[in-house]
Each structure stands twice: as C-alpha cells, then as structure tokens.
Design a protein that fits this description.
The structure is a homotetramer of 361-residue chains.
Chain A: H1 2-19, E1 38-43, H2 57-66, E2 71-74, H3 93-105, E3 108-116, E4 123-127, H4 140-149, E5 153-156, H5 171-178, E6 184-189, E7 192-193, H6 195-204, E8 207-211, E9 231-236, H7 241-250, E10 253-257, E11 260-263, H8 265-275, E12 276-278, E13 283-284, E14 288-295, E15 301-305, E16 313-316, E17 320-327, E18 335-347, E19 350-358
Parallel strand pairs in A: 1-2, 2-3, 5-6, 6-8, 11-18
Antiparallel strand pairs in A: 1-9, 3-4, 4-5, 6-7, 9-10, 10-11, 12-14, 13-14, 14-17, 15-16, 15-18, 18-19
C-alpha cells in the first residue's frame, strides 16, 4: 500500500519534469482534402530501442503528433536487434507500448515490422499486422507470405540502397509481385529518392510510399516546407486505420519528399488544385489584371509557364499569398494560365501540368 | 524617344535588383471573422520620410501587406517635418505616393495625418481625410474641427506619453469630446500600453485603437504571436474603406498588443469563440475524457480555470492543437468548462470569462 | 561467416540512415574562462530508458555535445525503474553504454545515479561513482554513506519539490550535512528555481547546482540565450573529470537558469567581467563620449544604473555589441560606470554590483 | 525659445518610439584576420531615396552596422533620380546625411556614387570621392576621368546585366582600362554571379568586388551563413578609410556571395586557414584517430577529399565543431589531409586546394 503511493508520487514527478519541455502541442499540417477523400499524413517506417533506434516507442507517437501527422507505424527490425543483451527481444512490444500514447493523442497507429534481409531481397515493411512473431522465420518468402496471411500491406523499402546487387528487381521480387505479396515501394526514404522505384510503381501499379525510417530522436517541432520528415499523404475515405489500409491497397498516395510532391497524376492534380486559391482580379487596366494567388498548403510550389499568359516563373511559398500581374487583351474575362508545377512529379523528371484559373469579375 | 527607353531600362534594373530580397509574399493573418462582420487587421499610425520616418511611403504598404494587414493609414506629422530642407513639405504626398502600391497589393489605404502639438493637448490622428493641407493651421482645435468637417475619424494618440502634463484629460479634451470631434484613443502604441486610455474608452464610449507608430523600416517578415506590430482588429461589414470607417465610428475594435487582446467584452467574446475549436472526445474512460482543443488564431491564448472541471491552467499557443484530459463523472455528456482568458482584457487588469464547450458523443 | 557480414551490412545501414538527421555538429558555448580556471558547462542530472527517461543512454551524450556542454552524468533512478519488465535493471549500464560515445565526442562523462526516495528526504544525486550497485540498499542514509565511501559528490536535488513535507530541512538532512555526506544543492532544476536552496547554499557553504533533469529527448540543437537547458558552469583547473570533481567539492560554480546566472559573488564578478568588452570611445564631444560595449557571452545581460553616469538601463544581448553614449564632463578620461547586473544573482533577489570601465584615449 | 523646446520634445518622441524596434545591437561577423591585415566586411554599392532606393540614407548605416559590416558606401545613381519631383537632386546629400550616424556607430563611410549609363558602357561606381557633383556630366568617359582625378576607386558594376550588348568588354572598357581609370569589377551583385567578370579580374589584375546593390530596406537582422548580403571582405592594414582604399587598389579582397567565397588563391588560402581549427586527436586506436575540426567563421565550408586520408566529404557548418574519424597507420603522428574547399573559388568552377593539418600528440 505504501509502496503504491510511493510509485504514484514518482510517476507524477516524471510527468511534471518532462512536461517542462513544453512541446506538448500539435502543429496541424495544411494539405487539402481531395474530393471524396480525407488527406492523412503518414509515416509507416521508424525504429526504436527495440531494434536499432534510440528512443522508447511512445516517443515516436509524440513526435508524429506534434508534427501534425495522422498515422504512423513503428516498424522495428525483426532480424536485427543489436540491443538484445539489454532489451530481450519481443517483436510486439513496440506497438503494445505505444498504443496508449497514440490513442490519447488521437493518432492512428498500425502494428508493423521490418523484415530485414541482406540485399537481395532487401528490407520489406509489413503494416497492419495482428502479430509480429510469426514473421520471425528463417525463410524470407515465408515471412512475407505470413504477413500477407495476416492481411498486411507490404512495402519494399529503400530499393536503391546497399550492397553489390542493390536496386535490382530480381526473381525473388517477381515471385512476391506475382503473388501480390507486396503492394508498395518506397519512392523516398529519409534523404534518398529512388527513381527506379518511382518508375516501377507507375509501370507495375504499386503504391508510392515515402517514409522517414527514423532511428534517432526527431528534433523537429513541426512539419513545414524545408523542415519536415519524408512522409506519405494518403487519400482515405475517413480518418481510420481501416480507411488508411483500403487507400494504401488502392494506391491513393502522394509522397512529400524535401521540396517535392511525388505521385500519380490522378492524385496530384486535385491535390495541387486544392492548394491553390486564385481570386478574381482586384485591379484591372486595359491590358493587364492584378490578382491574388494563394498557396494554402505546407508545400512550397514552383511553377513554370507553358502557355502564353502570366509570369514566366511563379514561386508560391507555403502558406502565403502572391499578387500576380497578368497581361491580357481581355481584362474582363476569366483567364486560364498554363503552367507546369516543377516540384510536383508525376513520373521521374516529369512535372505536373496545371492550369491556374483566374475568375472573371 | 531614346531617353524614354533609357528610363525604362533603368526602371527595370531597379525592379530586378530589389526583387532579389524575395519578400514579395503575403503571410495571411489568422483571426476569425465575427457573426455579420469581417475582421480587418489595421494599423492607422505610421511615418515616412515626409515627416520623421525613414522610409519612402510605399514601403509602408509593402510591409503591411507582407505581414497580412488589411488596411493602413500613413499619418505623417503635419507640424513636425525635420527633413524639410531635403524634402519640401507636401502633406498629401505620402498618400499620393502610396496609393498605387496599395491598390496593386489589394491593401486598403486611408488618407491620414498626425496633428502634432506639445502636451497638452498631445498628438491626434485624423483618418479618412480628403485633403490634409487645411489641417495645417496654428489653432489646434481648429485643425481638429477641420478634420471633422472632412468627415475624419480622429484619435487621441499615445495618451500617457511625454511632458509634465502627460496623460491628463484636460479642458481641451473635454471640448473636443463634447463636440464629438474625436472618436477613439490609442490604448496601445508600439511597445506602450495606456490603462487610463483603456478605462476612458470604456467610460466615455470611445473606440479602442492600437497602432505601431512605426518610424524605422519594419523588419518583420510576418505577423505572429511574439513578433507582430501593435494593431487594431476592426469588425467591419465588408473589406472596404467605407465599412472600415463605419466600424471605427461604431467602436467595433479589438487591439492586438504584445501577447494580449484588448477590447470590449461584446467583441472579445465572439473573437475568442472563433479562435477555439473543441472536438468531441476521442477517448473516454469511466471518469475522464480526452478531447482536442485547437487554437486556430495567431494569438497565443492563456486560460485559468474558474470552474470545477478541466485543467487548472491551459496554454493554447497560436495555430496549435492540444489534447486535454478532463475529469468528469459523466463522460458521455457534453462538458461546459469555465475559464478566464487571462490575456483577453475587457478592462484594465480584467480578464474575459469564457466557457469551453466540449461536445458530447 | 556469412552472418558476420550480414550484421556489418545492417550496422552500416543504421548509420547511414540516422546520419540523415545531420545534427552531427557541436555549437560551442561562449562563456569566458576565469583567471586560473577553465569554464566547463555541465549537466549532472538526466535520465534514460534505464529508469523513467525515454532515450537510449548515448543520446544524452549526443545532445549535450551538440549543445556545447563539456561534461554530463547520466543519473538514472536507482529505486524507480518503471521499464524493468522490458529492460532488466542494471544500474551501471547507462554509463557503460554511453562512455564510448562520450569519448568519441570528447565529452566528459561521470558515472552517476539518483537515490530516489519519497520526500523527506527526497532525491539525491551521487556523481563520480565507481559502481552504482552498492547504493541499491533499503536504508537511505546507508545509500548516501556508500556513495561517499566511493568518493562521490552528492547533491540534494530539486529541494522545493513534491509532497506535504517538501522543501523542509529536516533531521535527516542535518545528519547528512554534519557528516559532510552531501555537498551541493540544486538551486535550479529544469524550469524550477528554489530560493531556499539558494540561500542555504550561501549559509551552509554548499555548492550551487543547476541541472536539466531531462527525461524526454532534448529537441534543442544548441544552447543559446532563450533556448538552453538549465546547467552548471564549473570553474575547473583543467578540462578533466578530476578537475571537475575538485571544483565541485570546492564550490566553484554558477548556474545558468533561464535568463539568469546564479552564483557566489566571488565567481560572478570575474564571470561578468569576462563577458564584457568595453572599447575606448570612438567619438568624443565636449560633454559626451560614444563607446562600444560588447557582450561576448551566450547570456543576455541586463544592467541598471546605480551611479551617476551612463544610460539608466542597458540591455546587452548575447553575442552583440552596443554603442553607448555616456554624458561626461571629462570626455578624455577613463570612465567608471556603476551598475547592477539584474540577471546575475549573488543571493535570492540580490543583483550583482558591477563596474563598467570605459578606457581613456 | 518656446519653439525650441517644442522641437526638442518631438525629436525625443521620435527617438523613443523608434527605439521600440529594439534592433539597436550589432552582430559581429566572424571572419579571421590575415597575417598583417585586418579583415573588413564591406558593401560599397547601395541606394536610398536620393535615387531609386526606398530608405533615408542613415538607414543604410544602421543596417550595415547591425549586420556586422565595417565599411559601406552609399552610391546613389547620378543620372537616374526618379524621386526628383519630391526630393530635389543633390548628389552629395546621401553621404552628408549618413556620416553622423556612421561615426556614432563606428562604421566607415566612403563618399560614393554610381555613374549610370545604358549598356554599354553600363554602370560604374566611384568610391572615395570628395565631391560627387563634378561627375554629373554628359560624357561618360569624362565622368570616370573626373572620378579618377579625385582619387576615386572605380568599379564596373554587375557586368553581365541588362541590354542586348550586356556583358561585353568593348572599346570603351579598354579605354578606361588602359588609362587605369577603373580598378575593380563586381564578380557578384545581389543574387547574381558573373563568371566573365570573375575571369577578367584574374586575367587583367582587377580587384574582385561583391556588393548588395540594395534598394529596399534590408530586413536581415544579422549576417550569417544562409542569410547575408553579398559583400566584399577586404584585407586592410588597419580599420580606416585610408587602409581600405589602399587594400582595394592593391586587390586584397574576397567576395562572400551566397554560400561561396570567391577570390584570389593568395587571399583565400590564409582566409581558409584562419577559419579552421583542428585539434590534436582526443582518441586514438591502432588504425584511426578522432579529432575535432572547428569552423570558427560565419561561412559554411564544404570539403571533398583529394588525398588518401580522411572522410571523403566534410561539411563544416559555420561556427560549429565536428568530430572526424581518420583512418591511419600511424595514429601517433601528425596528419596532413588533402582536400578541396568546393565553395572557395579561386577561379570560375575552380575550388581551392587545402590541407587540413591534425597535430600529433
């Protein structure tokens, strides 16, 4: 009895002192929803002390929450557990230790793990598992098969990374692919972008993913243009794990990597459209109009003119409004301006074509 | 003909080089509109090289625009023109030189001036003038009268400032007041707050104003909690000079001064309500609920509990969401939490009482 | 054989990916050395997953190193180990796991632990232990005694914290004190300052300490005025653990807490003197001189005039130079300006008296 | 008499209110002096309301001072004065209005002006004039000749800029050059770099210059890697206008442009050497040492290995220390590591070769 009070007292201590950090707020991310879908910011690849990461699992929930993410998966390595002398291996513990914090913060948490083999085949993440332990088996293909038997969504991670055979699509990948045992690829992982993975996602109808693969503590207070983790925007029917899973299997994603948005044209078009707000001109002359063009999102947008009207180049920084002067012979008509969004990639080195519509009076 | 080309060439040069600064975007301010009114961020007191300021007048429009303001008035001193040896005095020039830039930027610009006399009576701003020149007359009361004849909105500036008789309400003020020749007072000016002015506005039904009175270049890129100019939020029927003027005469204002919002309870209540977004609880236990409380505005909000439920203290930083745990015997019922917003002042040293409503399931 | 390669490959992966964070540089702190002593920035109170912290121990070395600290001690609770179901208790492991990283980074690391008991007596840190295990004994006084038998430096932590009897100096403290079994007190811990502890350090000749007591990851990239952990500046004969220990027992410390420096007058005087650089005047008039006064340190300095000459108030932000105009009848003579440094505390609510000397021509 | 008091009162008002901006401190720049020379940070090209700039002249002194510069010249256009209807043209006024502020701030100010003609010949700055007026003459060559008769230092500005014949070295330039009537070229101006000018400076023994050419207010509080104006580092015998002039004629400069230092090998070698501090190793193993390498300057330094030892790549951010592991067979010997500093340009696209010396024990 006395002991119980004692424990409570000290628990309270830890809370008071750590709360001093005052990081306990969430900075909401600004990305538009798509028609019929809610945009969820997700990071489905990260590590903790239960494999080779350096934080206690719930820290991953706190980091993601304060940075405005909607869903994460803690995906410790199954086969690589360098801290096992201090922390006995239990593959389900990272999830079990994090789910309380995640629920309290209203953050979606999927149980996941990283199947970790030398290249080839490389590393694969299995998300939406019910139990990680069965995946701890010697045969790689068997491990992936077991993940699929649990209904997992499986991703080939950082495809272009590591080893003499890195980056190659080999027989083992074909085998998995033909069985529909993996469903997505990391187009970007941390600071790296993989153009082959990008192209294969297009060619083979795999889902494009971007993840942080973070091991150290994430020092970023918020996600903003210029200081965000690599993440996946998922266009889901609602904000739930079920809807997230459905959207991932359906391939409705875009990747936010450095200053770029990478994804299928089908999703980048409405995403771009939702970021931009063009007002009807507030000044007109005989041969020009002045209109406000706002970028309400957290991504900086860079445009190059492909048509005849409008500035040759437009930089629309995140969360700002620009005034644009547009030469025109018909200043009292709506204007359609043709551009390409050079940092919205619909394929490797291929920018999204967009139209800016400036309304008439 | 050749000369004209020459001029154009050099004009273009100036544009290219100065655009290098890349400050040419607007950071929209986040304040809620009020029922029936649009919230306009205004600064109606500032100086240029045409009196004792140090910038060319259109710079004031650029600064205000990039910081998200909606309306300004350039109010150079009429009687104090220390640069007159270099810049011949022309009281209407600051407006005339700024209006082009303001229109292009979609910023409202009112013609104004500061009637500048030793204390007493002190300095008075006249806004919405049609011609500044007639105010340049020796008799102070006559100058104010002429401003009123033009329909101007007149403000007693920085009431607590300067001289042995500073801060006193004297006969001259009564005379103006009885004639309804002045209509507002600066409750805050730059870094200074005037509690007497605050109280008098309440007692005498004068409009509360906050202005920057800026003389030097304003280095701030944007307005944010912790780095904004002192300004007035005006609740206007629409975003026009006419509506702004109507609202000022009607007293529909609040002042954003440092970390405080100062105004009548009538306006602070809906303003506070518009800043807060409380979600229905995302977790419930037998004796508590967890709910998200968001502050969507650009002002940090500090709350102290006055009722029985909810945390004793709540800090809701600008543009963030907090998760709040609330103890309750009826976790399936809506909750009404009584607080005071310690940085929303309805009178000197008097905080606004507020209710946070957490919806039921 | 194959397995070994496999392990190496994956180790390298972890390195490459985590280095992406690019936090791998040290921001040197700017504090002057004192005559005969080197100033060491120290934090001797922090936690890891081995008690109730949330990071792997070497993270504490990385954080401290990048923030410019010279010495730390990882002081996990001995009696409070809430993660013991996942991490079997081994009180020496935090040090053993951190020392490699510390050595590589050239950071001093002292083996330490926190003896953690309900108040009274409260929590005590023992630093410079050779073995933590013997301190894990039921009798509190015995635990402290054993720490002393190892030559440890013992600190009463966060004296004003927690419990109905918090903050009191009771018989048990007298017993320890009379035996010289504890040697310092935390005057500041994280966000809290303890004026009683401050006064007792003066009255009873105990060493003043300031520590972070950090549990969560420390997000700060560097230490700077306005964004630094609470720490102790120790004036040591050289940069070694032996010299650090000697200086702590000798009481040569100052505490950097928020915007304040707290310590004995004996050390604050030369510390202040070392922060300030006053140049000989660069302009002279008949009745004034203009001189540069620089603050080369990382602490903002606030001065109030106590004498007749110089500005009434001086703010000298960290790492900046100010130009000060000083009225004087003898502009060709050196000037001695009397001030108090309002944020250098030599006792509770007692500012350090200082003299600014402006050299003659 | 009363009037005088009145004026004083209002002058004081302006001071109090503008000081609210609290930008009144100087952030010292960190660049090493060179053997025998003091490094002066200079910007010798900028504009005010007296031509096409938008600030009152002393603002240029305030900006430069707070950003840590040592010397400036206000160089308004002689022939291009778009504000002349409001500000009667007086070419010497910018200097005359600024010199008081400059002296008070201990900032060196040279009288200068920009001879502004369509391309060719383009724009030329004349610095260290005694009187600008005589340069206001129709014949361009005559204007440059008159500047030289005053002993001015003359610079061909932004050589690659503007017009169909932009960037060409024509007969008129040869004429000036053969007469030694111009002495330097802007290798960088604002956001632009001119590789031709860079090469010509090397081939024709002209002094390399970098200037801001700022027209708008400069919002930057300080100069730092990533947020500084383009400027010239001048290696002068002392901190005086005479020494500055001697150094410019002698060609002892380097240009800080974006993240690059551009200059002759002769000056970049000691400049680089002065930025770097390599400590003797603090850890040694059989086949490696760990040493600290510090960059004490305000420029980020990027290194690529050209020899056999040391990391392949080294990023040394401004004002930070890095720990570097260096493989070696002789860990007890000093090490000479061969690199090129990829952002120190000794010619267009040509990096400076450097040696990092790690001392022995």
């Amino acid at each position: 009895m006395k002991m119980r009070n004692y424990r409570l007292a000290i628990v309270a201590l830890a809370f008071v002192l750590s709360s001093a950090a005052a990081q306990d707020v969430r900075h909401e991310l600004q990305f538009p929803d798509l028609p019929g879908y809610q945009t969820l910011a997700c990071d489905l690849h990260m590590h903790t002390v239960f494999s080779d990461g350096s934080v206690w699992p719930p820290v991953r929930a706190e980091e993601a929450w304060r940075q405005g993410l909607d869903a994460i998966s803690v995906t410790d390595h199954i086969e690589y557990t360098p801290k096992k002398d201090d922390i006995p291996v239990q593959h389900n513990r990272p999830y079990d230790l994090t789910i309380g914090e995640a629920r309290e913060k209203n953050l979606l948490l999927a149980r996941g793990a990283e199947i970790t083999r030398d290249t080839p085949p490389g590393h694969f993440n299995a998300i939406f598992l019910s139990d990680v332990e069965p995946l701890n088996t010697e045969d790689f293909v068997e491990a992936v098969k077991r993940a699929n038997e649990q209904g997992a969504y499986v991703v080939w991670n950082h495809q272009g990374w590591k080893g003499p055979e890195k980056g190659q699509w080999l027989e083992v990948h074909t085998k998995l692919y033909d069985n529909k045992w993996f469903h997505g690829m990391e187009v970007a992982n941390g600071d790296e972008y993989y153009p082959d993975a990008h192209q294969w996602c297009l060619d083979k109808n795999l889902t494009m993913m971007g993840n942080s693969d973070i091991h150290a503590p994430d020092l970023r207070e918020k996600s903003a243009a210029g200081e965000h983790r690599t993440m996946t925007l998922v266009f889901a029917k609602d904000r739930s794990l079920d809807a997230l899973k459905e959207a991932l299997f359906a391939g409705r994603t875009a990747v936010w990597y450095k200053d770029q948005i990478i994804g299928r044209k089908e999703w980048l078009e409405p995403l771009f459209g939702g970021c931009i707000r063009a007002s009807k001109p507030h000044v007109r002359s005989k041969d020009a109009v002045w209109a406000e063009i706002g970028n309400t999102s957290d991504v900086d947008i860079a445009l190059e003119r492909t048509g005849n009207a409008g500035p040759v180049e437009l930089k629309l920084p995140a969360r700002t409004t620009s005034v644009v002067k547009i030469g025109t012979n018909a200043p009292d008509q709506p204007l359609e301006l043709s551009y390409k969004a050079t940092n919205f990639l619909v394929a490797p080195k291929t920018a999204l074509d967009v139209t800016l519509t400036v309304p008439g009076p």
